[in-house]
Design a protein that fits this description.
This protein is of the alpha/beta class. It is 37% helix and 12% strand. It has a nine-stranded mixed sheet with strand order 7-6-5-8-1-9-12-2-13, with helices on both faces. Helix 11 packs antiparallel against helix 12, helix 11 packs parallel to helix 14 and helix 12 packs antiparallel against helix 14.
Length: 437
């Protein structure tokens, strides 16, 4: 039951320095893959992450315990369901069919309901953008833009026809035309875009910016990864902005992998002393690329915060941290196989700050988000509702389960073999090798 407050009580609470709880709770959960406190804290001290800083100043921050193996679809599905991969069924980036073909993990592989299923079943509106394992798009009370949409769009444009994957890339279908208008015209970077991550006075920048209008070719493999994931990130941020412009849902989930992708490729330049073979020129070119990627995220976060209703509960989390690879890698110099803690930042009505959160895990996120929405968590979820965000007297009694809330993705075509562009993206980040091992 949602709570309403008489006007006199609102004035009393304000006079005591406490904001009243919202009559219509809203939650925004922002997932930033691979975010690491050892990168964030020096940037906060230098004033380089102002939007994250304003959340921390009025809220709660701390480490977020991850678990092994640190495979993004598995971890982010645990965030969304509140249970471990062995229970929800999404355990890797890809799955093998009976005929030995490899396909991308998808929503139908998930055996339990996710936050968007539960919230929809409880009458709340939802918006889900870019979250792992959300293709084919499930029917929700709101909007779902799947993680496969850009690749379905690529297949659609290459064939010259409407690809059979495209209709299931988002829910509801009438949003597809608007989303198509956000698709990148090409996958290059303009000099202005590249300058966000590489100094303009760098010889490498000049080599890639020979054309006056755009960067025609990025042959350096780390820059290719940066370019592709920048384009992916920009599309999904614009999709979220478009969603919010049409009306904020009760529950918003947005995911970005840009920081994690950059860390995998550029950590050797960020922490050259851990590798010993990084040239001065490489340090000059790429030594600040990782912090610049965080600053890019912070600018996008600021735009998101400006669009959210002022009484929204905001959670910014990462599935794991990041650090230099053991022994020093050249191709993949940043890693997280040992499941370093991720980041947790939260702010919103009734949350006083700045405060530190000492212990939280990925499995605590779903129960806490549900409690903020005044929806009971399920007894099948092993995590707890974080008391720093929800006082114990406001935590709803748990229900047995939400098994009936699991939606069946509509399958109009068989699950496709892993498309070549998806395969190359996963291989570039080292994930197909992990899958093979």
């Amino acid at each position: 039951m949602r709570r309403s407050f008489p006007l006199w009580l609102c004035w009393v609470l304000l006079a005591c320095g406490e904001a009243p709880l919202p009559a219509h709770p809203r939650v925004a959960l922002v997932g930033i893959d691979g975010a690491e406190w050892s990168v964030i804290d020096p940037m906060l001290a230098r004033g380089e992450l102002p939007n994250l800083q304003r959340l921390i100043a009025r809220g709660v921050r701390g480490p977020l315990q991850s678990f092994k193996p640190t495979l993004s679809p598995a971890l982010w599905t645990s965030v969304a369901t509140g249970v471990r991969p062995s229970q929800h069924g999404v355990t890797n980036f890809v799955t093998r069919a009976a005929d030995a073909t490899i396909r991308q993990v998808e929503s139908g592989d998930r055996r339990v309901p996710a936050l968007w299923n539960i919230a929809s079943a409880e009458g709340r509106t939802v918006g889900v953008v870019g979250w792992w394992a959300t293709w084919p798009a499930e029917s929700v009370q709101g909007t779902l833009v799947s993680d496969f949409l850009l690749f379905a769009a690529s297949a659609r444009s290459q064939s010259g026809n409407v690809d059979p994957l495209w209709p299931r890339a988002a829910w509801p279908r009438q949003h597809l035309d608007a989303l198509a208008n956000l698709l990148p015209g090409d996958w290059q970077l303009t000099p202005a875009e590249l300058a966000q991550f590489v100094p303009r006075d760098s010889p490498r920048f000049a080599a890639h910016a020979a054309a006056p209008a755009r960067v025609e070719s990025l042959r350096d493999p780390p820059l290719v990864v940066l370019k592709d994931n920048y384009r992916i990130s920009r599309f999904y941020w614009q999709a979220t902005q478009q969603l919010l412009d049409s009306g904020q849902p009760d529950l918003l989930l947005h995911y970005t992998n840009f920081v994690d992708a950059v860390e995998h490729k550029f950590w050797r330049y960020y922490e050259p002393e851990a590798f010993g073979d990084v040239s001065a020129a490489e340090r000059a070119d790429f030594g600040a690329t990782i912090p610049r990627a965080y600053a890019f995220f912070d600018r996008e976060l600021g735009d998101l915060l400006d669009r959210l209703h002022e009484d929204t509960y905001i959670l910014v989390i990462s599935d794991h941290g990041h650090h230099a690879t053991q022994g020093g890698g050249k191709v993949f110099s940043g890693g997280h196989r040992d499941a370093p803690d991720g980041v947790f930042v939260a702010a919103g009505p009734g949350i006083t700050g700045p405060r530190k959160l000492e212990t939280a895990t990925l499995l605590d996120i779903a129960p806490t988000v549900l409690a903020l929405l005044e929806i009971p968590a399920a007894k099948t979820m092993p995590g707890r509702v974080l008391p720093e965000l929800v006082p114990r007297d406001r935590i709803p009694a748990r229900v047995a389960s939400y098994d009936n809330a699991l939606a069946d993705p509509i399958r109009e075509v068989p699950a496709p073999e892993l498309p070549s562009n998806v395969r190359e993206r996963l291989r570039a980040l080292g994930y197909l090798e992990e899958e093979a091992n």
